[in-house]
Design goal:
alpha+beta; OB fold (Dihydrolipoamide Acetyltransferase, E2P); de novo design (two linked rop proteins); 2 domains; elongated
């Protein structure tokens, strides 16, 4: 049993003497782990960094084995983000969310391509990549069956002045309909509606929005909290507002 595919490195854990259990995401094989011999060695450590785009190869005697993983570098996203703390935090957060949220060996092509697009945008402009990350998390929620309904107001049915999201239903609420409940609702950043540019305050609002539903509906059912890397990203973005 074997396959070769473009992949995003999600996670790496030391294993044995110089080895590593690595986790990657591919289009057809989903989140997939394997043993990288020498994965923590000086020669391979830079390869197996979360966020890197690689050409991965997995080989196993049986389909359900851990198997052996090897790879060649395609895009060193982690190294490129090293000089930008916000970019590096965003990269690590996205990989941690994918690693923790996605079922193993279950294909999610839309999420894979969205993650690759985010990594590519991050290499060009962090300010463009942060909204992409929030949109990708919203797509991930939808892919796992917990999609947000931002098309119309849950109260009036209208499509104008959508400004909040119900933390219970995930449905949008308009500014006029929010009334006395506005302090209990989650702000809806306009970039999630495809409207206008965004600021750090908008990114923070978006991360709080998707983070609420990821924590409740995805990680909560696993009896886990949001990954630490995701929490650290929100703290860093909020501090910049």
């Amino acid at each position: 049993m074997e396959w070769d595919a473009p992949a995003v490195v999600l996670d790496v854990r030391p294993h044995g003497e110089g080895g590593a259990i690595v986790s990657v995401m591919t289009e057809a094989h989903g989140r997939h782990a394997g043993l990288a011999k020498g994965g923590t060695s000086r020669g391979q450590a830079a390869l197996w960094q979360a966020g890197n785009l690689v050409e991965a190869r997995w080989v196993g005697r049986l389909a359900d084995q851990l198997g052996a993983m090897s790879a060649e570098m395609v895009h060193p996203a982690a190294a490129l983000a090293m000089e930008d703390p916000l970019a590096l935090a965003a990269l690590r957060a996205a990989c941690a969310v994918a690693e923790g949220a996605l079922p193993e060996r279950e294909a999610h092509p839309r999420i894979f391509h969205g993650l690759v697009a985010f990594v590519a945008t991050l290499a060009r402009d962090t300010a463009l990549a942060l909204p992409d990350l929030v949109r990708w998390e919203a797509d991930l929620l939808a892919e796992l069956g917990y999609g947000l309904d931002l098309a119309r107001c849950a109260v009036t049915g209208g499509t104008e002045d959508l400004a909040f999201v119900s933390p219970r239903s995930g449905r949008a609420v308009s500014e006029p309909a929010a009334g006395e409940w506005r302090d209990r609702l989650l702000p809806l950043p306009r970039f999630l509606l495809g409207q206008g540019p965004s600021t750090a305050a908008d990114w923070a609002a978006g991360l709080r929005l998707t983070g609420h539903f990821l924590a409740r509906d995805v990680f909560g059912v696993q009896h886990k909290g949001l990954p630490a890397a995701r929490e650290m990203l929100l703290d860093r973005v909020a501090a910049a507002t």
